[in-house]
Amino acid sequence: MLTIEQLQVHLNLDAGTLQLWIEEGWLLPRRDPELTFSEGDVARAQLILDLKREMGVNDEGIGIILSLVDQMHGLRRVLRELMQASQEAGLPCS
Fold first, then answer.
1. If DSSP states are collapsed to H, E and C, what string results for the chain?
2. pLDDT in tens, the chain (94 residues)
3. Cα separation, 52 vs 18, whole angstroms
4. With contact defined as beta carbons under 8 Å apart, do 17 and 48 qualify?
5. Angle at 53 between CA 51 and CA 54, to 5 degrees
């Protein structure tokens, strides 16, 4: 877990940019009692940086891409659960 200051240093971000990402809901840090970021949060922040800096994606595009990434992860979780339930029921998975 990283604090907000550690994440800023790790990614070379200014406080305003990181705060904007939190306000936009792009990053969802834990509050215990200060903001902390998991490895997943760090990877997501790096993705945002790559999209902005390397690919030139604007803020609206980043929001859309992150939403699609979240949906994909949700679908993968559901698929994994369905496959596990099928296996437990003795149904073939193909």
1. CEEHHHHHHHHCCCHHHHHHHHHCCCCCCEECCCEEECHHHHHHHHHHHHHHHHCCCCHHHHHHHHHHHHHHHHHHHHHHHHHHHHHHCCCCCC
2. 999 999 999 999 999 999 999 999 999 999 988 889 999 999 999 999 999 999 999 999 999 999 999 999 999 999 999 999 998 998 887 6
3. 13
4. no
5. 70
**Sequence letter at residue 42:** V
Find out whether 14 and 41 touch, Cβ atoms under 8 Å: no
* Global confidence as pTM: 0.82
